[in-house]
Amino acid sequence: MHRDVEKDLNRLQKKQAEKAKEKISKTPNYPNNDSPEDSELLKGDLKGWLSQRISKKDRLVYKIESNKKIVYIAAAYGHYDEAPRRSKSTASYR
């Protein structure tokens, strides 16, 4: 998870934060680069990343690397605002 995703979760309303945390907890259930049916494959700067709707304006943006068994979560607040910047380097993930 990107170091700023925790801040994203704190900015969400309680109901949306719970929904985001539930979606985050389910992402390891798709280890073969499969994704939940409500995921959208992103294009452009976020090619290779997936998105799930949290609310009308908020998206969970993540990437699954099944060969390394890693799920990178770039954003959980806003409509892709910070995701392109956060997706550039895995050094900021923990």
What is the CATH architecture term?
Answer: 2-Layer Sandwich
Look at the structure and give the mean pLDDT: 81
According to DSSP, the number of beta strands is: 4
Level of helix content?
25-40%
Query: Distance between termini?
Result: 6 Å
Determine the CATH superfamily: RelE-like
Rounded to the nearest angstrom, the radius of gyration is 12 Å
- Weakly predicted, low-confidence segments: none
The total domain count is 1
Strand adjacency order, main sheet: 1-2-3-4
Report the order of strands and helices. Answer: HHEEEEH
Question: What structural class results from the helix and strand content?
Answer: alpha+beta
Shape: globular
CATH topology: YaeB-like fold
Please describe the topology of this protein.
Layout: H1 5-11, H2 14-26, E1 39-41, E2 50-53, E3 59-65, E4 70-75, H3 83-86
Antiparallel strand pairs: 1-2, 2-3, 3-4
Q: How would you characterize the overall build of this protein?
A:
It is a single chain. With 94 residues, the protein is an alpha+beta fold. The protein has a single domain (5-28, 37-92), classed as YaeB-like fold, CATH 3.30.2310. Helices cover 26% and strands 21% of the residues. The chain is built from 3 helices and 4 strands, in the order ααββββα. It has helices at 5-11, 14-26, 83-86; strands at residues 39-41, 50-53, 59-65, 70-75. The chain has a 4-stranded antiparallel sheet with strand order 1-2-3-4. The N and C termini lie close together (6 Å). The mean pLDDT is 81.
